[in-house]
Amino acid sequence: MSKRAILNIGLEYTLNGRQQQVNLVELLELLDVRIPEVFGLATVQSDSERTLVVEIPLDSEANVITLADEICERFHQDAVAIYSEGLQAGILCGPRAAQWGPFNPEYFYLRDDRTLADHIRAEITAEEEARHV
């Protein structure tokens, strides 16, 4: 399997002081048009809101940062978090990404409902246990 880019897209926003829900059907239609191949989709409950987790191949023709910026503009998001498995690094993209601070694996979710930080800790534990066997 090729390396993936994983996006976390919040499914809520505030407009005119009122909490709103992202139109999930419209968001999925946009993803379908922009990304030729999606490895996986899931919605998870983060500490603050429902979040769509999207896994796409890094070798996809889609420009992931441009896609994230388009999602922010169209769906009123401050930022979209992106993690690159190939680089093993993450960034926040969008008009108010800087207000959220740097990418934080404690707040980045995977499709299995774990945070990236939990996943990394589990991998380290498994490696340590394998060395002691």
Task: Give a quick set of tags describing it.
133 residues; alpha+beta; five-stranded antiparallel beta sheet; two-stranded antiparallel sheet; 4 helices; 7 strands; 32% helix
Walk me through the structure.
- With 133 residues, the chain is an alpha+beta fold.
- It has one domain.
- Helices cover 32% and strands 29% of the residues.
- The chain is built from 4 helices and 7 strands.
- The strands form 2 sheets. It has a 5-stranded antiparallel beta sheet.
- Strand 2 and strand 3 form a beta hairpin.
- The two termini are 28 Å apart.
- 24% of the residues are buried.
- The model has no long low-confidence stretch (mean pLDDT 91).
In short:
By secondary structure, this protein is an alpha+beta fold. Helix content is 32%, strand content 29%.
The strand order across the widest sheet is: 4-5-1-6-7
Count of domain modules? 1
Rounded to an integer, what's the Rg over CA atoms? 15 Å
Order of helix and strand elements from N to C terminus = EEEHEEHEEHH
Mean pLDDT: 91
Query: How many E strands?
Result: 7
The biggest beta sheet reads:
5 strands, antiparallel
Runs with pLDDT <50, length 5+? Answer: none
* Overall body shape: globular
Helix residue percentage: 25-40%
Amino- and carboxy-terminal Cα gap:
28 Å
Q: By helix and strand content, what is the structural category?
A: alpha+beta
β-strand percent reads: 25-35%
Count of separate DSSP helical elements: 4
